[in-house]
Fold:
Amino acid sequence: MIARMGEQPTGWRIVVIAVVLPIAEPVIAALREMGHDVVAWVLPRRPQLRDRPTPPWGETTDKTAPQGVNVILARDKADLAPLLRGLEPDVVITWGFPWKLPPDALDVPRYGSVNLHPAPLPRHRGPIPMSWALREGDTEFFVTWHRMDADLDTGPILAQTSVPILDEETTIFEMGPRVLQASIELLPRVLERLAAGDPGDPQPTEGASWAGFFEEDYATIDWSRTAREIHNQVRAWAIAFQTEPVDGPFAELDGQRVKVTRTSLTDPGDGSPAHETGDGQIWIVETEEPAS
Structure:
């Protein structure tokens, strides 16, 4: 039964597909508050990552995962469709998942599969859109809920909004909560459009861009650039969580090559040293030695 526009659905069976616990947990809580049954949280099983450091939010275990939700570790994207068929979802919601969902998986949920992409689609499609927003000097982070199709971040748009980029925020743990809250506030509108059978608004062909992983051309700090450009470069790398195939940003400080991990456009008052840039000073708050 298709709902009329303006009617808020309740009682749907929803599967959340995500990697990051601090994202999955509040999204699941919000969906429950809206009256839906989140029947599963699906994560990828990636044995090749076992030797990597524990993420800052800790490992996902039975103790840390939201209670009352089936936690499913999928071994391969080819298994997603049969897993979803067994769960019989009305909707699949993804956010920050490393695999492109195959078409047979996207077709399983009754009302469709939707994804949250933190960018003003069609601009900044790809894996690190918030980092590219900083790199290109944007003043806002955007969030877009869109229907999923066979390609990455190309499906019809269901809802968009934005939050301002604040100079004093330098890590994803400072920026992320505002982006997360703005995204969750759009969920009722997203589900309302799904319930009404609304196909969403096709993405325009103009203005599309790809937010791929950074390369060598952005891995070294050029002190002749403006303080804001350098501040954004450091922040862009910090929230990319990227170490392969290229790491950065690196700079020469006091005759040593270091990775710059945190800067400030104003004096933080903690003794952090200042460095001259193309238009004034920037304060070097944190650095670390290169990995190799």
In short: Residues 170 and 235 are 5 Å apart (CA to CA).
